[in-house]
Every structure is written in structure tokens, then in C-alpha cells.
Amino acid sequence: MLLSQIKRPEGGVGVVARDGSEAALVKGASSVRDLALEAIASGRTLAETVAAHGLGEAVDLVVMAEEGRLLAPIHHPDPAHLHLTGTGLTHLGSASTRSAMHAKASADDATDSMKMFRMGLEDGKPASLPGVQPEWFYKGNGIHVVAPGQPLVSPAFALDGGEEPEIAGIYVIGEDGAPARVGWALANEFSDHVTERINYLYLAHSKLRPASFGPEILVGELPQDIQGASRISRGGQVIWQKPFLSGEANMSHSFANLEHHHFKYPLFCQPGDVHVHMFGTATLSFADGIKPEPGDVFEIEAPAFGLALRNPLAIDADRGVATVRQL
């Protein structure tokens, strides 16, 4: 089952459930988060909760996309209570690009990126948890969430704005403080790779950017082997395209280990909060020397996730020097 959210013509949010090519509004559902909290409280699965509500009016999601009515597939009414986070160096083949970006003067000295990648290879899929902790980063909160089809806006001070095709885990925290996984979604973990390349300690700065995910959430088990495609179009023509791999068969960490090292912090177990946690990538157009331009369209797709995730690139107006007023 796939879940998404759309703008209702009369206002408000509609929840759409899809099985195969048939999509319809979930009766009486005002948001995916509310459905998830209902499932947690009732002890039912999300699929059982949707079935209990029943399906109503049919929805054409392709038309919704064309009309700009797709929303992020989950949200929180208070954006500060949605957390955008991620982890890197988790995918087989991901270390070479990152290591080249962070290469030291001595060719004989392994970069910190390569060292962390090797740690994941050695103990990222332990027989019993916990395994080694991964790299972790913060991207922002719900204010940084960009709906499918809407522009990913790069700050005027950014040195680059590039895509990162990833799988994101979608979570809601129950009243007892326990995280529950809603499902999985495609994500564009939009980043500034030029800033990151200057110095690895600039990684935190490079990640403070908007991100998009969806349009649909895959509910249930994630396939072991995810094979998708990431591309950039300019003026209607594809200027770069490459396959990307994800799923545990292509990763150095298990999802259970990555989830443990995120939710081991009480900060991330606050009742009602929503988490969108991105699990890393091994494919970047930046590694191939591509510099995206305003108006370029990023597209990420994989068959298991329904509709492709598309977002154009835009550049924010220069806001000048940030100043603080003394009270």
C-alpha cells in the first residue's frame, strides 16, 4: 500500500491510499500522521486502520501532480515538531565519492570518511544490536520540507545546490515515547557539496538545506534491493542520468542499526513528533562534474515507490548579512 497527501479543492488535506493503479481518498482521514497515531493507539497496523476507515472518492495522482496539488506525504501541524535528519556513508560504493571530496594531502592516509565507511562494513550489520554508530546529520524541521513538484530553493550564499537520491524512513512517536515506522519514501536530500568539499567540518553547514520526499509512502516491508534512477533535466532535455541502489542488500548498515542510533536519544522520542530520516546514497551528479542551474529539474524514481519525486531548482534572493538586535 502507498499513502500520500493532496490539497482538497475546498481546502484542507486529503489522504490517498493506493494499491496498484487504483487510488482513493481515505474516508474521515485528515492526515497521515493522524492515521498513524490512531493505528498506534488501537494496536492495529496502518493498513488495518485504513481498511477500517474505508475508501471513498477515486483520485488520479498523475493529475494531482500536474495540478500542483501534491503535498508532502506526512506533516505535523507544528512544523517545529517534524525532524529532518539523515546519515551518510551507509551504502556500498558511497565511500569513494565522499573520500575523494575530503582527500588529505597524503595519499597513504585514509580519510575520516573512509575510516567511518570501513567501520560500517565491519560492524554495521551486527548479529545483535547495537552495532557501530554511523555518521549522522541534521537538516532542519518541517519548515525545510518541500512538497513534491515544488522548488528546492538554494540560499543565495550557497556554493552549490545538488541532489542526493535516498530512501527515507518515516516515523511517528507514540504517546509512550516509542517510535513507530509509518513506511518508506523516496527523498532528495538536497545539499551543498562544494561547501562540504572545502572542509569536512563544513558538512553541518552543507546539510542545512530544504529537502523533498514522497510523493508516496510505501507502507510495509522495504525490498532488500532497491534499484532506481536519478536524473537532471534542463529545458526539457535530460543532461545527466544514473542508476542508484539502496535497500539493505546494497548497504553497509542494517536499517535496525541506523534506527537504533537515531532513536536512542530521548530528544527524538517525544510523543506526537514526526521524523523523516534519510539513509544515505551512493550516487551524486556532483561526482560527475554536473553543476545544476536554476530551472533544472531533479527527478528520482524507483518502481516500488509509485510516482517519481520531481523538484525544480531555484535560488533564493540575497538576504544580506544576518544581524542581531540587542534588546
What is Rg? 20 Å
Amount of helix? 10-25%
> End-to-end distance, in Å?
53 Å
Give the number of helices: 8
- Overall pLDDT confidence: 93
What is the multimeric organization of the chains shown? single chain
The outline comes out as globular
Low-confidence stretches: none
Order of helices and strands: EEEHHEHEEHHEEEEEHHEEEEHEEE
> Biggest sheet: strands side by side, in what order?
7-6-16-10-11-12-8
- Strand residue percentage: 25-35%
* Class by alpha and beta content: alpha+beta
According to DSSP, the number of beta strands is 18
Please summarize the sheet with the most strands: 7 strands, mixed
Write the layout of secondary structure elements.
Elements lengths: L1 E6 L5 E7 L2 E5 L5 H11 L3 H8 L1 E4 L2 H6 L3 E2 L10 E5 L7 H8 L10 H12 L13 E5 L3 E2 L5 E3 L10 E9 L5 E10 L4 H6 L4 H5 L3 E3 L3 E2 L7 E9 L2 E10 L8 H9 L10 E5 L18 E5 L7 E7 L12
Parallel strand pairs: 6-16, 8-12, 9-18
Antiparallel strand pairs: 1-2, 1-5, 1-13, 2-3, 3-4, 6-7, 10-11, 10-16, 11-12, 14-15, 14-17, 17-18
Helix pairs in contact: 1-2, 4-5
What does this structure look like?
It is a single chain. By secondary structure, this protein is α+β, with helices and mostly antiparallel strands. The protein contains 8 helices and 18 strands. Strands 7-6-16-10-11-12-8 form a 7-stranded mixed β-sheet. Strands 1, 2, 3, 4, 5 and 13 form a 6-stranded antiparallel β-sheet that branches. Helix 1 crosses helix 2 and helix 4 runs antiparallel to helix 5.
